[in-house]
Write a structure and sequence with these properties.
globular; 3 helices; disordered N terminus; 184 residues; alpha+beta
Length: 184
């Protein structure tokens, strides 16, 4: 799972949460879901300059400092969630998501209320929809509460990126992609 964020005007910024899916054989220590308690953090040493919340801010163009990733494979199942500095995804040109559309996404947002408290918009519903989509297209499922907890921690890490002006928010974009190398 990879999560990163974008900042923009017009009520959004973007965060992406992707699940990297690779195939293999079943294993005795198979993990049916990732767990929030296993979350690891490696925060950036070089934070980006946060842009002003004005008309120059464009949706989908400014990414925040970090992303959340959770790997998965058929041998061990889910790995440990990790929050790390934003980086390109390693993706083989023969990855299934590029050839067979094995991917899904959702979207939610974090915003600052009048009381200056940061809130997420319907995170449990978002996690449930992502789980349901994964079930429908035969990608690995997960415990929705574990994802919700990881998303909340991610927003805590990126709290300085959550705009405090009306009409602005941090858009969070959970994404799951099949990265197994296979064109058959």
């Amino acid at each position: 799972m990879a999560l990163h964020t974008l900042l923009h005007k017009s009520r959004y910024s973007v965060s992406v949460c992707g699940l990297f899916v690779k195939r293999g054989l079943a294993h005795r220590s198979y993990q049916e879901t990732f767990r929030f308690v296993d979350l690891q953090e490696s925060l950036t040493k070089y934070p980006k300059l946060i842009p002003p919340n004005d008309d120059s801010l464009k949706f989908g163009k400014v990414m925040t400092d970090h992303m959340l990733e959770v790997p998965w494979n058929n041998v061990t199942g889910w790995g440990s969630p990790t929050i790390s500095p934003y980086h390109p995804l390693p993706l083989d040109p023969a990855a299934k998501c590029l050839h067979y559309a094995l991917e899904l996404f959702e979207g939610t947002k974090a915003y600052c209320g009048d009381d200056k408290k940061i809130r997420m918009f319907r995170p449990t519903d978002n996690c449930q929809r992502m789980h349901d989509s994964a079930t429908r297209i035969a990608l690995p499922t997960f415990d929705i509460e574990e994802l919700r907890l990881c998303l909340h921690r991610f927003v805590e890490v990126e709290k300085n990126w959550v705009p405090d002006q009306p009409g602005f928010s941090l858009y969070i974009r959970p994404t799951m992609i099949g990265t197994e190398v296979c064109v058959t």
